[in-house]
Amino acid sequence: MELNKYIDHTLLKPEATRDDIIKLCEEAKQYKFKAVCINPSYVSLCKEHLLNSDVKIATVIGFPLGANTIETKVYETENALVNGAEEIDMVINIGKLKSKDFDYVYNEIREVVNKANERKAIVKVIIETCLLTDDEKIKACELAKKANAKFVKTSTGFSTGGATVEDVRLMKKVVGDDLEVKASGGIRDLETFRKMIEAGATRIGTSSGIKIINELK
C-alpha cells in the first residue's frame, strides 16, 4: 500500500475555520490521502468538497473526553452518518474502563458499531493509551474486538500523550488480524510514521501528512 493511503488527514482543533476545513479537503484530494478526520459540525461541508473523490470522511464521537452517555454517542453517530460520515472514531468512557465497568464499555462500543453498520460505516475505537495501564489497554482492545469494531486507535491527541510504538505493538498483538490499529497523536515525521507501520498500524492520524509525504520524496 502506498504510504499516503495510510493517512487520515486530521484537523480537530476547536479554532479550525470553514476555510481551514476546505483547505484540508483540497489537500487530501491532491495527496490522495485515505480520509480526512474532522469534528462533526464539518462533516456536511467535507461531503460537499470531497464529492466524486476517493477520500473518506471520518469524524469523532464523544470527543475528546469520552465521558458522554451512550445515548449521546449513538445520536452523535447517527447524525454524523446522515451528514455524510463514512468512518466513526469514538472515544470510550475511560473512567468506566478504569472502574472495571467492562459491560458498560462493551455496550457503548457495540451500540455505536450497530448504528454505524446501518450505513456500512466503520468504527475506530479510541482508547486513550496515555491514561491506561497495559492491562487496561489489553482489556479495551478485547472489548472493541468483542463489539465488532473495525479498528482500535491509540489516542485523541488532546490528552497527556500520543501514540507510542510500544502501544501500537501491544494493541496489534491483542487484536491480531481481527481488527486494525490506528496510531494517532504526535506523529509528525517520516521516521515515526514508518515505525508505527512496522509496529502494526494500518492507519495513521496526523496533521503532518503533507510534511511526511514530502520527506518521502
Automatic annotation (TrEMBL):
Classification via InterPro entries: Aldolase_TIM, DeoC, DeoC/FbaB/LacD_aldolase, DeoC_typeI
Record's keyword annotation contains Cytoplasm: yes
Pfam families, per the entry: DeoC
Active site: 89 (proton donor/acceptor), 153 (schiff-base intermediate with acetaldehyde), 182 (proton donor/acceptor)
Catalyzed reactions per annotation: 2-deoxy-D-ribose 5-phosphate = D-glyceraldehyde 3-phosphate + acetaldehyde
One GO CC term on file: cytoplasm
EC number, UniProt record: 4.1.2.4
Location in the cell: Cytoplasm
Biological process according to GO: 2-deoxyribose 1-phosphate catabolic process; carbohydrate catabolic process; deoxyribonucleotide catabolic process
SUPFAM superfamilies registered for this protein in UniProt: Aldolase
Cross-referenced CDD domains: DeoC
Main localisation: cytoplasm
Pathway linked to the protein: Carbohydrate degradation; 2-deoxy-D-ribose 1-phosphate degradation; D-glyceraldehyde 3-phosphate and acetaldehyde from 2-deoxy-alpha-D-ribose 1-phosphate: step 2/2
Record key words, sorted: Cytoplasm, Lyase, Schiff base
GO molecular function terms listed in the Swiss-Prot or TrEMBL record: deoxyribose-phosphate aldolase activity
Keyword Protein biosynthesis: no
Family from the record: Belongs to the DeoC/FbaB aldolase family. DeoC type 1 subfamily.
Function: Catalyzes a reversible aldol reaction between acetaldehyde and D-glyceraldehyde 3-phosphate to generate 2-deoxy-D-ribose 5-phosphate.
The protein's name in its UniProt record: Deoxyribose-phosphate aldolase
Biological source species: Soehngenia longivitae
Recorded name of the encoding gene: deoC
